[in-house]
Design brief:
Helices cover about 65% and strands about 10% of the residues. By secondary structure, the protein is of the alpha+beta class. The longest helix is centred in the last third of the chain and has 52 residues, at about 745-795.
Length: about 800
């Protein structure tokens, strides 16, 4: 069937070859026209990059139909948006219960109300402490006039704060060495600079305070600060790592290619490919997410691979005695189809990122696919035109690698069976470690300690115990239903169960407030710290409390407008995404079984929706990988006109991924969001080596009529050098990403480098002996069949 399909495309292929020959002749005769036209197109397209906008809002990671994001949006409409700046105040050598520290907390609280888009400030200073005074309920801020506090006043404040379960490990650490000042924000939609403005205001405000209170540390954290840090991490990577990648590529090309003109031409193609990619998406009006920071590095590597294959053949032909024009003709003739084929397969692989449930990764795949096309277009036009006009000196340079490739081919032919058995065993053994990988996201470790946000995260976990927040919207299903004693009992029972769980550091709920108010109304008798036993009393206590609160400190972030539901916030110790999901499932199961007066529900919150998207992404991307392999195999079977070669490519394309993820299990063992997308990004690039190898092998085997051993010699001699150069440069280029201060970039760089290194090992040590074994067996069958037919005809 594949033969008939290949034959049916024969006339089309002939037509394309004629057109290609005409194009090549025109390019060689008029290189400056090609260069001028290419430059004009590049400039016109690149202008669009100025139209690009950038967002670092975490919600960009979720599609409009994401169910967890829908739950969070509903929760925020009921209570409050999860946008805040948190100032972590630390006095590790002493305590925050000193006059200076309390003065600082009070000033930070006052400053918090001045932050742009500030909606509410919560701190130890303005914690609304309730107490009984004769027959009245008195509600006051815990810290007032801090400058005039006496030692007895400070001792009283400390005693109240550390005895109140509602604020220990939520506002203040149990040891009294840390506290949080939280500024809740209402950021305007459609203003990507709003979050940066709020964070910059806080940074500027605390700078003079840090000088005044030098023995107390202040670190900025919170969801909005994390969003800003995310954008800064991507910007830092682009500014530093892209330049470093260029340096690595230049040095690699100079050392391995050893021709300055070829290096210059390659750099022009690389830069232009990246610029055109950004320009096209600018003209399309795209808004870039943080994942776009990976695009330059990946497009760069693809452009290098295309360029090096053309240049390697070009210099090989020059060393064989051909003129520059003939060398360019032969390089384009030999490489035009393989480069087009690798561009198609690479695009197929990265486009599978559209299976991701996260729009930024959809965009990443689409941008890389466009970059692949740009690199292909420029490598087929601008690069050969530059080769024609640039001078070539020292034609004999680069001969050593060819000799090494010839020696490797001879060794493989002689040790075919031994190498095949050894490599099969190595692949199976290393791949057997893949199940040891654990799915799990740890976004609280995205940054290193050069980011203040990461230091704040670490200090919060160290001193406050809790790091992750899960919110529960506990609905009674009835208007004014939260006043019902049976509802309140269920809420408190749920909270008590949660506090018994090993992951939990603090549970903030409405019932704590009601029990304290009930105690206050009984002359602060601790024995009366219980929930009210009738609906009317509960409603009266809440109303009395709300009437006593200052402006901006109401209960709108705790109860809904209809008084039918209340919010519970659970603070969990440092963990990963899978454990968060498992915890929430246990909690939902408990509610469903034990709380008859609360509508069964799951938790929500930023941490939890990230946990779900990581889990869902891995499953969907695995499906995308399978589809990519099927499509790539079909393309290769048709293009190579051989079902056998197409199936061999499938094996050799899977092996690098198996080796890489098996090795990853030994190195890290954690598959997070960035690690899960590598399999789709790498599969298309890994195929490139196999395509070039099989294309040259097929050319020698079926067009030149060589036997399998000679075809292998030819393949190593013509393409081995290019594969070695491209792999060394690509591995080094991706290894540069491990110098990032942003963990997803580090993971992507490390796993891509490992995968591409294994791809070369597989294509040099696994594919050739496999090819020899399969192809030699077929050749023997054909010879036997031919001999039998001849004997039959003779008889």
């Amino acid at each position: 069937m594949t033969d008939r399909l290949g034959d049916s495309l024969g006339s089309l292929r002939v037509g394309l070859e004629i057109s290609t020959q005409a194009y090549v002749e025109g390019l060689i005769c008029h290189p400056w026209r090609v260069i001028s036209l290419a430059v004009a197109i590049i400039v016109l397209v690149t202008i669009g990059a100025a139209k690009l906008s950038v967002t670092n809002d975490f919600r960009a990671y979720f599609g409009p139909n994401n169910p967890e994001l829908a739950d969070l949006n509903h929760f925020e409409e009921t209570y409050e948006r999860q946008q805040n700046v948190v100032i972590v105040v630390l006095a590790p050598q002493t305590t925050i219960f000193t006059r200076d520290a309390l003065q600082l907390i009070a000033e930070l609280t006052k400053m918090g109300w001045q932050v742009p888009y500030s909606r509410r400030v919560t701190s130890l200073a303005n914690y609304q402490h309730t107490r009984a005074q004769e027959h009245e309920l008195v509600v006051t801020s815990l810290v007032t006039e801090p400058a005039g506090l006496s030692g007895a006043d400070i001792a009283r404040i400390k005693a109240i704060a550390l005895a109140e379960p509602g604020i220990v490990n939520r506002l203040v650490s149990a040891a009294g060495q840390a506290t949080l000042v939280t500024v809740a924000l209402s950021l305007p939609a459609g203003n990507p600079r709003a979050n940066a403005r709020a964070v910059q205001y806080v940074e500027a405000a605390i700078k003079p305070l840090q000088e005044r209170f030098s023995d107390i540390e202040m670190i900025i954290s919170g969801t909005t600060a994390t969003d800003v840090a995310l954008g800064q991490a991507v910007q830092r990577d682009i500014e530093t790592l892209v330049g470093l990648s260029y340096l690595v590529i230049v040095l690699g090309l100079l050392v391995l290619l050893r021709h300055v003109g070829g290096v210059v031409a390659t750099l022009v193609v690389i830069t232009s490919s990246i610029a055109m990619t950004m320009g096209i998406f600018g003209w399309l009006g795209a808004t870039l997410e943080p994942t776009a920071g990976f695009v330059p590095s990946i497009v760069m590597t693809i452009a290098v691979a295309d360029s090096v294959h053309l240049l390697s053949t070009f210099y090989y032909e020059l060393r064989s005695g051909k003129t520059k024009s003939d060398a360019v003709r032969e390089s384009l003739r030999v490489n035009a189809n393989p480069i087009a084929l690798t561009s198609i397969t690479t695009a197929i692989g990265v486009l599978m990122l559209n299976f991701s449930d996260s729009p930024p990764y959809n965009e990443l795949g689409n941008m890389i696919a466009v970059g692949v096309c740009a690199a292909w277009l420029l490598s087929m036009s601008l690069l050969p035109a530059l080769i024609v006009v640039l001078p070539v000196k020292h034609v004999t340079r680069g001969k050593a690698l060819e000799l090494w490739m010839s020696a490797l081919a001879e060794w493989l032919i002689g040790q075919r069976l031994r190498v095949l058995v050894t490599m099969t065993a190595v692949v199976l053994i290393i791949a057997s470690f893949i199940p040891d990988n654990r799915i799990g996201e740890q976004w609280h470790e995205y940054f290193d300690d050069t980011f203040s946000v990461q230091r704040a995260i670490d200090k919060t976990a160290q001193y406050m115990g809790g790091l992750h927040l899960i919110h529960y919207d506990l609905r009674s299903g009835k208007e004014d239903g939260l006043h019902a004693p049976e509802y309140l009992r269920d809420v408190e029972a749920f909270a008590l169960w949660l506090e018994q769980q090993p992951e939990v550091a603090n549970v903030d709920r409405l019932t704590q407030l009601l029990a304290r108010l009930h105690m206050n109304m009984h002359a602060d008798d601790v024995n009366a710290r219980v929930l009210p036993d009738n609906r009317e009393l509960a409603a009266q206590l809440l109303l009395l409390y709300e009437l006593s609160l200052p402006l901006g400190m109401g209960l709108e972030n705790t109860v809904d407008m209809r008084r039918s539901a209340s919010r519970m916030t659970v603070s969990l110790k440092r963990t990963d995404s899978e454990q968060l999901i498992a915890f929430d499932q246990r909690a939902a199961a408990w509610l469903s079984t034990n709380a008859q007066h609360i509508t069964p529900t799951h938790g929500t919150g930023i941490d939890l929706i990230f946990a779900h998207i990581n889990h869902r992404n891995i499953v969907s991307l695995l499906g995308g990988m399978v589809l990519a392999l099927v499509l790539i195999s079909i393309v290769l079977v048709i293009a190579l006109r051989s079902f056998k070669l197409g199936m061999l490519s499938l094996v050799t394309n899977l092996a690098p991924a198996g080796l890489a993820y098996g090795t990853w299990a030994m190195i890290s063992g954690r598959i997070d969001l960035s690690a899960s997308v590598v399999i789709c990004m790498s599969i298309g690039i890994v195929v490139d080596d196999t395509v070039h190898f099989l294309s040259k092998y097929r050319r020698a085997r079926y067009e030149a009529g060589k036997n399998s051993a000679d075809a292998l010699r030819y393949t190593f001699h013509t393409v081995g050098v290019a594969l070695t150069i491209t792999t060394c440069i690509l591995v080094a280029g991706f290894a540069v990403l491990t110098a990032s201060h942003f963990q997803p970039t580090v993971t992507t760089g490390a796993l891509m480098a490992i995968t591409l290194a294994f791809a070369l090992v597989v294509d040099f040590l696994f594919l050739p002996p496999l090819l020899l074994t399969v192809d030699s067996g077929r050749a023997r069958m054909e010879n036997t069949r031919g001999a039998s037919q001849a004997a039959l005809e003779k008889s």
